[in-house]
Structure formats: C-alpha cells, structure tokens
Amino acid sequence: MKWTTANLKHPNYTANHEIYVGTQTGSFKRKTSVYVEILVHSHVFFSDLLPASKTPHGQRNISDLKALDKESQVTALSFGNEAQSEILLGRAKHIVEVHSLKGGGELRRDVAFIGAPIVGLARYNDKLIAAIGNGQVQIRELDEDAYKASKPIVITTGTQIDHLRQCAEAKNIVATGGKDQQNNLKVYDMSANGGQVFSSKNMPNDYLQLEVPIWDSDIGFLDGPSVLATCSRTGYVRLYDTRKQRRPVSCFSSEEHGMSFAALMARGNNIYVGTTMGVLKAFDTRRMKTHLHTYKGFTGGISDLHLDASGRFLSSACLDRYVRVHDTDSTVLLYQCYVKSKSTKVLIRQLGDVLHSAEPTKELEQQEVVNNIKQNETIKLTPEDDDYEDMFKQMPTVGCVYFNIFI
Q1: Other C-beta atoms lying within 10 Å of the C-beta of residue 330
Q2: Which of 26, 42, 20, 186 lies closest to 118 in space, CA to CA?
Q3: Is 297 exposed, middle or buried (0-12, 13-18, 19+ CB in 10 A)?
Q4: Which residues of 369-392 are buried (b: 16+ CB within 10 A; e: fewer)?
Q5: Which helix (H) or strand (E) holds 185?
Q6: Whole-angstrom distance between the N-terminal and C-terminal Cα of the chain?
Q7: What confidence category does residue 4 fall into, taking pLDDT thresholds of 50, 70 and 90?
Q8: φ, ψ at 392 (rounded to 5°)
C-alpha cells in the first residue's frame, strides 16, 4: 500500500472534539479537530493550550519526551469520571499517571502499583483500579493519607489479562479477559470488595472434540452491566448476557484468513471491532451472522477504538501512525491526522466549555506571533526594495540569451 503522511478533514466535520493519543514510544499527545480559542473565567488566554498551527491538525505533547524510556509505551488510557475531566494513563511499567484537566490546565499525579504492564484502568469513588498483565487486579486508595498508609488490594483473576473495562452505567462493575481458559471473561463488583459475579463458559467442543481456543483481547458493555461483548485474536466476536447463561447468547466467527480482532467498542445495539490487518467493522447485536458496516482508510493494524459521548463519531488508533474519526452511520472518514509514532490508545471528548471559530481572531494571531518569537528567539523579515525588484524584472532570462546566440 502507498505510505503517506497526509492529513485530511471532511468539510462536513464541524464537531469540536479534543483527541488524546498514546503511542508506542510513550508520548502522550493532545489534538484538536478545529482551531480553538480557549477562555477561562478571568478571560485570560492560555497560549500554551492552543494548537501548534492554524490547522485542525494541531497537536501538543503532554508528557515529557526527555523522560521516556523503553518501558514508557502507553498500554492503557481511559477517562476517570463522567465529566471526562480526568484521564488515567498506564504504561508498560508499574506507574499510573492521573491527569486532571479541570480549569483549563493540566495537573499530573503518579500512583504506584506492584507489577507491570498496566493493561486496564478504572476509577470507582476514591479508588483506582488497575489490571496488571500477570493476571492481577489491584485496587489503591487515591486519598493521600490512605495511599501512604495502605498497600494495594490484590484480586487474582488468572495468569494473564489482556484488558479491563469498566461499565459506564454501573461504575462498580468491571470486566477482565485474556488468553486461555483460565483467563476467560470475568465480571467483578467493586462495591462488594471485588467479588466475582460472573465467569463465562467456553463454547462446546468442535467436530473433532477439541477445545475451542479462548483469547478475549477486548471487552465492551452494551448500555448496562448485564450485556457484554468480547472480541478475540482468534477471529470471533461473542455476545454475553449474564442474566441468562454463562455461554455466549450470540457469536460471529470469521472464516477469513487473518481476521484477528484486537480492539472493540460497544454502544447500544452496535459493536465496533478492529483487526490487526487494518479492517474496522460494525456488527448489530440482533443479527451477528454478518457485519453491518465496514470502515475504510486504514493501512495498519487497529490498536484502539473510542466513541464520543453522542455515539456518532468513532475514533481509532492505528499502527500506521494515524488517528482517524469516522461517522458511525455513514462510514465516511471525517478526520485523519499523522501523529509521528505508532498510536496504541486513543480517547475523544467534546469540548463543551470552549469557544471555537473557523478562523483565528486578530488577538489570537498576535498572541501566536509573540509565542513564535519566544520559541525561535528572532524572526527574520526581509524588507522590499522597489529599485532592487525592478532591476531583476528588466534582466533577460538565461533561456532567451542562449536562444539568441545560436540564431
């Protein structure tokens, strides 16, 4: 496939979104889909929060690039509250970063866990929940005094975890999944001291009486704590209802070679899944035999998916170093931005308190000039000289002189 670094934006994409991206190199970036003008209560402009350019593809690094190392890969990214003013970030190390976005600024706090990598994060009341790749779910208090005085509560779910997901409607419910039978889909209630409330059961053996392989690479809740969907690297998408039975109530199994599902996002009756081969499909839970939509534009494996609050815009992180936004109904590619590193995690949120315009105002233009002067120290401007310009206009071109000589 043709490799390109072109940025795209559909003319009908006018939503004011803010996109957060985590990469394999460990960088944590913030992107804006429009040119925004950020205003606080005192009407003071924060120039450091503006996009890097006058285009809808401006981006800024939140993390310190000098502090990154080989274990800084972003492996988990989620919002910490319903207002989406807090971001939980996990890496391939035992430290979890809690970023607060309240008041137009950014505050960071580090919380230490035992073990690595962090593959899933959630927050319930004043407790931070982290899923470790070794099969443990650890819970830590966020209160300063309780954090220093206590050790993390450990819940053993198996030998390996691929992902942890929190239910948006019932914050006390979390689900985990991983590879092999002992790491199947499990649901826990954090209000009951992390007690297990559901454990899935595998499908019946195949026609050779062999066990069907299990690998729940991602999990999603469908508008409630009782209905869940999982996708697998082995090529299936399963739908569970914890009120009915332990086995899946519906299942899609791909017979196509290389259909390995790596990321999943669920909302309402729709399930969105991305594969390691760069294919993004949508399924209807009422008819799981075939897919509903196919979203195009990918040239690499899809590593993460996230829907905005309205459920209309689907953002995706891809290993081809792009972040994209699709319309869930029309499947149109609305936004595409190059992020320079392989993106592993993505979040998208609506900027409700931000005033935005299609073109920057004069005050913002003057502020950007001041910022450029500070960054580049000096800006060289060449004045125009009319006599100097007229001299060049009267000079014959090299091609004409060469032609006259031979004539």
Answers
A1: 11
A2: 26
A3: middle
A4: eeeeeeeeeeeeeeeeeeeeeeee
A5: none
A6: 51
A7: low
A8: -70, -30
Contact (CB, 8 A) for 157 and 142: no
Bond prior to 51 in cis (omega within 30° of 0): no
| Whole-number Å distance between alpha carbons of 55 and 47 | 15
pLDDT tens-place string over residues 324-355: 999 999 999 999 999 989 999 999 998 864 43
Q: List beta partners, residue 188.
A: 174, 196
Positions of E strands within 173-226: 173-177, 186-189, 195-199, 216-221
The alpha carbons of the chain give a radius of gyration, in whole angstroms, of 25
Q: What is the pLDDT of residues 138-153, one digit of tens each?
A: 999 988 888 888 888 9
> What is the pLDDT of the chain when averaged over all its residues?
82
Confidence of residue 251 (pLDDT cuts 50, 70, 90): very high
pTM: 0.80
- Integer Cα distance of 282 and 290 in angstroms: 9
In the sheet with 280-284, reading across from the earlier edge strand, the strands are 261-267, 270-275, 280-284, 293-295
For residue 209, the 8-state DSSP code is S
Place of tokens 């019946």: 204
* Number of helices followed by number of strands (H, E) in the chain: 4, 31
d(CA 133, CA 119): 6
Structure tokens at 71: 């274990």
Residue 139 · residue 194 · CB < 8 Å: yes
Nearest alpha carbon to residue 164 among 115, 192, 131, 195: 131
